[in-house]
Specification:
- By secondary structure, the protein is mainly alpha-helical.
- Helices cover 78% and strands 0% of the residues.
- The chain has helices spanning 8-17, 23-47, 49-58, 62-78, 82-92, 95-108.
- It starts with 7 loop residues before the first helix and ends with a helix.
Length: 112
């Protein structure tokens, strides 16, 4: 009902807490949850990119994961948050950026 009426967030919230289902219900529930992720991920890219990244990861859509993670990496780097940029570089699989942010973090560490 909720999915049919495009109430994906509500359906996802209910679907994620339902545990007591038999095999056939579980398969249908997983199908509906996947549909919710597919509908919501693109919608969240601008407003809640972390959530979009999580949904794309759950859908195993690696190209979208890399794209969103790269965008988040760039945003974090522009703010000078190199720890966050490093996290997103790792998710994006960008080894060059990983090394760059590691070096930046080490360079900016206070000397004790």
């Amino acid at each position: 009902f909720l999915v049919g009426n495009h109430l994906y967030e509500e359906a996802l919230g209910i679907g994620e807490v339902i545990e007591d289902t038999d095999g056939s219900d579980k398969a249908r529930l997983n199908e509906l949850i996947t549909l919710c992720y597919q509908e919501l991920a693109p919608r969240y890219e601008v407003s809640e990119p972390e959530k979009a990244l999580e949904f794309y990861s759950k859908l195993n859509q690696q190209e979208d994961v890399r794209r969103v993670a790269t965008n988040l990496m760039d945003q974090a780097a522009n703010k000078g948050s190199f720890e966050h940029a490093l996290k997103y570089a790792r998710i994006a699989g960008n080894d060059t950026a990983v090394n760059t942010f590691k070096a930046a973090i080490n360079l900016l560490k206070p000397i004790s």
